[in-house]
Amino acid sequence: MAYLGRENVVGRFVKLSDISSSFNGSNTSFTLQDSGGVNVVPQNENNLIINISGVQQNPGDAFTVSGSTITFTGPPASSDTFFGIMLGDVQTVGTPSDSTVSASSLSSSFFVKNNQTLTGVSTSASENALLVGPVTVSGTVTITSGTTLVIV
Known about the structure:
Elements: E1 14-15, E2 29-31, E3 48-52, E4 55-56, E5 63-66, E6 69-72, E7 82-86, E8 110-114, E9 117-118, E10 121-123, E11 128-132, E12 136-137, E13 141-143, E14 148-151
Parallel strand pairs: 8-11, 9-12, 10-13, 11-14
Antiparallel strand pairs: 1-7, 2-6, 3-4, 3-7, 5-6
């Protein structure tokens, strides 16, 4: 099936190896590995989607994880099937506090003019500009191809 929307650009999303061959009705702990047989270490159980015989397991209730070991609260039966995916780190950025981002924190091709009276505005190729607040431009505004000028 094709992917709808923008593809994720960060995080490692891994289909886990099938561990059901180790299910015997008494073992509860199993090693998580990728398809290449390399142990994987999820950040926590919330980074896992685990299905046993088609039933999604609730992280923290049905299983826990420590390092590359998943431990189920009850032993899977030898007839059970397994499907699992480890979700990559999401990298929550959050919102910067007020007055913590300055023009020097932005790309060198980005400049900010605030509360200005300008006699002309010119941008070079590949330069981005943002004019904020009361801005008066008397004269010529030249925006070169490949440039972005935003007036807020």
